[in-house]
Amino acid sequence: MADEREVLVAGEPVLLHAERALFWPRARTLVIADLHLGKADHFRRAGIALPVGGTSHDLERLDALLELTGAERLLVLGDLLHGEIPEAPWLARWYAFRNRWASLLVDVVAGNHDRVLRRHPERAASMGLTLHAPYVHEAPFLFVHAAEDAPVGGEGYVLAGHLHPVLRLPGLPRLPVFRFADVGILPAFTTFAGGMPFDPVRDERVFVCAPGALVEMPVA
């Protein structure tokens, strides 16, 4: 089983990675959704004991994907953040990441958790981000955070995040998936995310991000 798979989406070749990312070769763009930077810190500040290091782990995975793909741009389909931007260790780790990838363009389609970036665009600039709302249209795709954010009658195949879709394989816990039907839904990139179980629909393509492997599930 491979940890990546080339598929056609809206007639365009893309690579799906088991590490929950989509690479669009023609645009040299790595696409992820729902990074949720600072989520564990947010819960710890609320008095919920959680281990540290979640952001570091997610950024290490992102480092590896950027190295592997040679991407020149990172496109985040919303919820780059989980909440406010306190002076917390995760923020320093993000700045270190941006320093490592200083020439990388980082575009963010603002999600429901990115309110602070919309209210304070100077914070987005200080983090090395270009913020977009409510969508980015680059044929043949229409990139949004939630599928319902796509304009009615808008041109382009919708690629979204937000839902954190998951399925269970025999003998394994629930795992994140890519879903491609009338719209495409990416899995949450962060490993610290809940998931929304679903029932695949007819003719949908579903790819499960298993440990070290990307598995296409048969759908009747």
UniProtKB/TrEMBL annotation:
Keywords attached to this Swiss-Prot or TrEMBL record, sorted alphabetically, are:
Endonuclease, Hydrolase, Ligase, Nuclease
Keyword Transcription regulation set for record: no
Q: Per the UniProt entry, what species is this protein from, by scientific name?
A: Luteimonas yindakuii
Superkingdom to which the source organism belongs:
Bacteria
GO terms (molecular function) for this protein are: endonuclease activity; hydrolase activity; ligase activity
Q: What is its EC number?
A: 3.1.-.-
Matches recorded under InterPro entries? Calcineurin-like_PHP, Metallo-depent_PP-like, PdeM-like, Pesterase_MJ0037-like
Report any Pfam family annotated for this entry. Answer: Metallophos
Domain (Calcineurin-like phosphoesterase) spans 28-138
What's this protein's name? Ligase-associated DNA damage response endonuclease PdeM
